């Protein structure tokens, strides 16, 4: 197993998101891709999109450097749900079921679910599974923080995973701005 991020690296990167093109990767980084990054890489809706190109290029570089990428079941869950909602939102109004649950139960969703499953398997094959047991997180503390923060509860959990595992977050999501963990992004709004 690779060593945890050095204190020097952590201090340099903390509260200072860096653009993925400006970061000099040395193969020692331990990265945690947010669900939105996996969506940009895998969802057909983003083929040719600049975000898909940036994050796909990053993934190729990291594979070449043998840089470990970590994933957690929470990210897989977010990926699956977001992917399915994108598919629902893409339907023309004339053929769109009244709500998402009806869509998810429809025969046409079977093929979409198979595509999602295929892409999830690709993500899992590329990444190392993070083990963070429910019993190791102080859930009471997180629940106390939640009403006082501006963050989604899943984002707080993802932050906790990155902090405990000493992982650098790769995200395009502005919701992670202000978290005291190393962040890499292609989103210029997250850097400023």
Task: Describe the 3D structure.
By secondary structure, this protein is α/β, with parallel strands linked by helices. It has one domain (7-191): 5'-nuclease (Rossmann fold). It has nine helices and six strands. It has helices at 7-13, 35-42, 50-65, 73-90, 100-105, 109-126, 139-145, 153-165, 188-191, and strands spanning 18-19, 31-33, 69-71, 128-129, 168-170, 183-185. A six-stranded parallel beta sheet has the order 1-6-5-2-3-4. Helix 2 packs across helix 4 (73-90) and helix 4 packs antiparallel against helix 6. The protein is globular.
CATH topological fold name: Rossmann fold
Low-confidence stretches: none
Query: What's the total number of strands?
Result: 6
Q: Provide the spatial order of strands within the biggest beta sheet.
A: 1-6-5-2-3-4
Instruction: Characterize the biggest β-sheet.
Output: 6 strands, parallel
Helix content: 40-55%
CA-atom Rg in angstroms: 17 Å
CATH superfamily: 5'-nuclease
Specify the CATH class: Alpha Beta
Keywords:
9 helices; six-stranded parallel beta sheet; 192 residues; alpha/beta; 51% helix; Rossmann fold
List the helices and strands and how they pair.
Elements: H1 7-13, E1 18-19, E2 31-33, H2 35-42, H3 50-65, E3 69-71, H4 73-90, H5 100-105, H6 109-126, E4 128-129, H7 139-145, H8 153-165, E5 168-170, E6 183-185, H9 188-191
Parallel strand pairs: 1-6, 2-3, 2-5, 3-4, 5-6
Helix pairs in contact: 2-3, 2-4, 4-6
